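Reviewer 2 asked us to include a model.

Predict the structure of this chain.
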Amino acid sequence: MTDPVKDAYEEITGADEAVKAREARNGLRHMVSLSMTKVADGLIDPKLVLSWLAGALGAPAALTGLLVPIREAGALLPQIVFAGWVQSLRHRKWAWVMGSAGQGIAALAIVFIALEMEGYAAGVALCVALALLAVARAACSVSYKDILGKTVQKTRRGAVTGVAGSVASIAVIVFAGLLMSGLLRDVMPVVVAITLAASLWGAAAILFSLLEEDASDKTEDTSVDFTPLKEDRQFRLFIAVRGLLTVTALAPPYFVLLGGGQSALQGLGALLLASAAAAFAGSYVWGRLSDKSSRKVLFLSGLLAAGFATLAVLAELGGWAGTVWVVPVILFFFMLSYQGVRSARSVYLVDMSPADARSSYAALANTAIGVLLLITGAFGGLLALAGPVASLVGFAVLSLAGGLLALRLDEVEIG
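Predicted model (structure tokens):
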């Protein structure tokens, strides 16, 4: 008798050999859990949803401006602290489960703030709740690559994470359409969306707890091992590549400043729509390509990002950016390159890391990237004093440098 779960998993991942039923069950649990958390991420996106909510609650602009940095840095910098704790766990899935549940609780706190608070107090409370959400996310991030490596075999990991991105993007596209339509002019629909996000994080935690994970060797020393930074040249090179390519995450807001003529809500709605559409079109494809060579995907994504950032600059200088469809189309393709970077960086790190040190590698890499995000963000902000064109030119240069530097990485999908 055929196993429908196993057959579906083999079809989705394109496995060229029979996989074990246990891996198939785990792989599908990964896909569904990640899909739910990615939908939740889209529903509570600080770049759009929380920024709009803060404005609707009358929070000061200075506090609203802190939301995105809190979310980005808060999800990365604590990982160096969490890594030792994760390594001490026999079953690392529980770190992810607690992190997902924690994000759901933080989302419920945001719902309470939206219903009961306003003004300065609401702004401060939103920042605190988002900080808690980001820290919980850090626990998920630092543990996930280790769990993925233990439960899904090499050459199928990119497909597992890629299909989750594509599936989740459909829901985010619908939500983005509602935002751009002007239907969500009241706080209550946004509160409902954030409540749904909280429910999805909770459901994902429950499903992920069912993952069939082998126990890891007991680790007495829970301190973070900095040896990879000192002795692993490829790891240092990977951090440099990923650091340069962080601009693919920072550049999109500058696209919506081009051309003018759109309200902030419409512009950010277009950003969310372009991001979700690119995730739907590219996540699975980039994931499959990353399973073949994540190094080449990093190279190609860097070149594409540089090319479309340059195209956006030319559109602005040529006076085309004011045309309704020009910037959204360019932004879509830029976000497609961003999806390539996201997929390849995750697969490369898992595949290059020793099985017994994935948590340390992930924590060191993500903490370093958290610092580099702050640096490149400040770099883009300084260039923005001269306008969005200057920022996009700088980001194009860094993207090109990151793509070319990726060619010096070793192939890790072979063998």
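The chain has a mean pLDDT of 84. The CA atoms of residues 313 and 328 lie 13 Å apart. We have added this to the supplementary material.
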